[in-house]
Amino acid sequence: PGSSTPHRPRLPRRWAAQPRLKTPAPPAPHRTAEFSASPASLPPRERERQRDRPDWAMAAAPFVYCAPSDGGRTDENALLMAALHGNLGRLKDIVNSLTRGNGGPSAIFSFNKDGVDVLHGAACGGHLEVCKYLVEELGGDVNAPGIGSVALGATPFMMSAQSGDVPTVKYFLDHGGDLMKADDKGRTILHHAVSAGCCKVTEFLLSKGVPVDIDCGRGPPLFMAATNEQDKTLKILLDHHANPNIIISGATTPLLSALIYRSLKCMKLLIKAGADVNCKASTMTLLVFATMQGGYTNFIKFLLKAGADPNIPDDLGRLPIELAALRDCKEEVEMLLPLTTPIPTVPNWSIEGVISHVKNEDKKPMEQRHRERRQRLLKSQADTAFKLKEYKMASECYGLAIDHGESATLYANRSVCKLLLGDGEGSLSDALRCRMLRPDWAKACYRQAAAHMLLKVPSSLPVCPLMTYSIIDTDL
């Protein structure tokens, strides 16, 4: 939406229930419903409407999956699927069947999949006629939060933003939709629209007075756009004067997030809008992060052309060229060399000379107090990123902290980050290392069992239902 050329936007990675398991499709005979409705089964007006919609908009709700029926919930599953597909006639038949002798029709809103009920499903699909029926005839609440691991407090009004259908969003707004309400992850309806790449809905919401930098504790919409690589909605926000230098929890910026998720388009737009290419207000510069982490060679070249200063060191006084040399990356050292002020202690200011000097210096033991201070700083950054549900950023920061000294806590925390990112093998590897360091630690066993569950590997380790993989340890 928002473009004359239909496109398939990438769905927000942070909306799926965590961990995001790769659930195999069940065998055809046991499926309760399919995700694609037959055009012939839809009302004429709906068929005409869907012909004009891009392919991605025809998909079902991005994070709603109906598992195979357990036998007693067939009608409830069919109810949700009818709402997702916009099949009003089928929906009415099921409502009548479910509520006959079992209370009023409004009872159907008690049926849900992990917090996603029938109104959430219809709203997410942008099925206006179904939404009207559910709200006006059955009394559906457009601001009712979905309580569950999938909905995470999102309301039908918020989910309507994902449809890209402005009339549906407008209908919910006219019927009391709360523009300022946030879900459990601190996202308003504007956050939902921006993260899904829905340009027209984003413009509509901004025209209704939603603050462009609205922040309910987890970052503004601009941060969500950068994190989800949505350059088109990011541009809309910048055109409405969103602050490109906003600091999130004192640790990151939209530009740093765009770098972490390798969105060059978002980075170009942010820098053009005035974003500080050095991120001086953040805990580290972009060049420091890129050269320390590795794998960002092309981005380093872009940052240097954009005016990034290669003479700003990290908290231990190391310049980006030294960090690149530590990784033995000659290409990055070659790019940084002519722009970096020569280091007095390096006798041979050349590519080979810098790499040789840095490697020799690295063999010297770092003072313990410097190592511990650096490790605490990196862990603090990782903990902050985890609380923001930026699991990739947190995982990378925990990894950098581990480089300054192994810790069972750091491995346990990185294990849960990888688990939430769907990396079962990485999560298991960290869990096993954690158990080696603290064999009898209950949380280490739990991390291993959780990784086994993700990998579908039989495990003799019990998973305590009172523990949760979404808790990290704050002490080293």
UniProtKB/TrEMBL annotation:
Domain Serine/threonine-protein kinase BSK1-like TPR repeats, residue spans: 378-449
UniProt region (Disordered), positions on chain: 1-53
Keyword Magnesium: no
Keywords of the record: ANK repeat
Keyword Lipoprotein: no
SMART domains xref list: ANK (SM00248)
Record field: compositional bias (Basic and acidic residues): 44-53
SUPFAM superfamilies per UniProt: Ankyrin repeat (SSF48403), TPR-like (SSF48452)
ANK repeats: 152-184, 185-217, 250-282, 282-315
PANTHER family listed in its UniProt record: ANKYRIN REPEAT FAMILY PROTEIN, OS01G0189100 PROTEIN
Name assigned to this protein: Serine/threonine-protein kinase BSK1-like TPR repeats domain-containing protein
Organism field: Aegilops tauschii subsp. strangulata
